[in-house]
Amino acid sequence: MKLHVINTGNFKLDGGAMFGVVPKSLWSKTNPADENNMCNWAMRCLLIEDGKRLILIDNGIGTKQDAKFFSHYFLNGNDTLENSFNNIGYTANDITDMFLTHLHFDHCGGSIKHNKEKTGFETAFKNATYWSNAEHWEWATKPNAREKASFIKENIIPIQESGQLKFIDGENSKQLGENISFAYMRGHTDAMMLPHIKYNGKTVVFMADLLPSVGHIPLPYVMGYDTRPLLTLTEKEKFLKLAADEEFVLFLEHDSVNQCCTVQNTEKGVRLKETFSFEEYFGK
Fold first, then answer.
1. How many CA atoms are closer than 13 Å to the CA of 208, on its beta-carbon side?
2. Which strand (E) or helix (H) includes residue 26?
3. pTM value?
4. For the chain, which end, N or C, has fewer CB atoms within 10 Å of the first or last residue's CB respectively?
5. Element (H, E) at 196
6. Are 185 and 192 in contact (CB under 8 A)?
7. Phi, psi of 85 (to 5 degrees)
8. What is the structure's pLDDT at 283?
9. 233-236, long-range: CB within 8 Å, 24+ apart, which pairs?
10. What pLDDT was estimated at residue 203?
11. Alpha-carbon distance 78 to 201, whole Å?
12. Quick one: DSSP state of residue 109?
């Protein structure tokens, strides 16, 4: 097995929305905002090379939305999904499994692209099985008013129409191989999945939106986007305690500076231990 970091570019979101009730005077120490109160965030994905399988976890915001949509998110940086694939010798057609932690647009927008005629949509990974779970799929395709803007139909429905959609059976599923399991989280959105990957003697956890950045490690630092913030508190406290005890490597999807981190138990609770790039920790 080999893991590859896949960078798809950065975008900006309001700092207050990203940190909920925490005052700007505190969160801006780790995540400085621009003059419009916007903070920069990565859309960092992970590619798992495991035998004949190429498993991509999340795929960024995509390219098919219109200029008005993208104007809200201030896309920046030189990284793209296609360039990141090219850098390691692969293309989208090589992907065998497209795993989606959840169906918010910044995690699954790259799933679908315009067809050649630009008269409709088609899957961007034509040879891949797309993995979600039945509980989250139901939640995303019948969205509540609070999350409706994050669940964009053209990111989701064409996956099902293509016949490439399958559901993960549950947290103990081995559908993606013996070395990959899942933890379900329901505070951010219903049944978001965090892959746990056994790799080189460590457990690498793809953090999705349970822990967007190292700035979110203290328990009260919960996003305003979360549908059940008090549940996020409980989930995060339990997970971070386990991560400290088991020395998990936390892969950060949205931290624009830090790819990975570890955490440790302290008198003040679980806190940051180290930050590092994936390559620094595991080598090329």
1. 30
2. helix 24-27
3. 0.97
4. C
5. strand 192-199
6. yes
7. -65, -45
8. 85
9. 233/187, 234/187, 235/185, 235/186, 235/187, 235/210, 236/187, 236/210, 236/211
10. 98
11. 33
12. G
User: Do the strands 202-206 and 192-199 form a parallel or antiparallel pair, or are they unpaired?
Assistant: antiparallel
Token pair 């509980």 is found at: 135
What local confidence, expressed as pLDDT, does residue 118 receive? 86
Per the CB < 8 A criterion, the answer to whether 212 and 194 are in contact is no
Amino acid at 55: I
Low-confidence ranges of the chain (pLDDT < 50): none
Write the DSSP string, 143-169: --TTTGGGS-HHHHHHHHHHT-EEE--
CA distance 261 to 214: 7
Name the amino acid, one letter, at 189: T
* Confidence at residue 104, expressed as pLDDT on a 0 to 100 scale: 98
C-alpha 112 chain-centroid distance:
17
Pairwise CA distance, residues 110 & 105, whole Å: 9
Length of the chain: 284
| CB of 262 closer than 8 Å to CB of 274 | yes
Long-range CB pairs of 108-111 (<8 Å, 24+ gap) are 108/58, 108/59, 108/155, 108/156, 109/59, 109/60, 109/61, 109/62, 109/64, 109/65, 109/152, 109/155, 110/8, 110/59, 110/60, 110/61, 110/62, 110/63, 110/81, 111/59, 111/62, 111/155, 111/159
- The dihedral of CA 149, 153, 159, 165: what is its sign? positive
pLDDT at 103: 98
Cα–chain-centroid distance for residue 51? 24
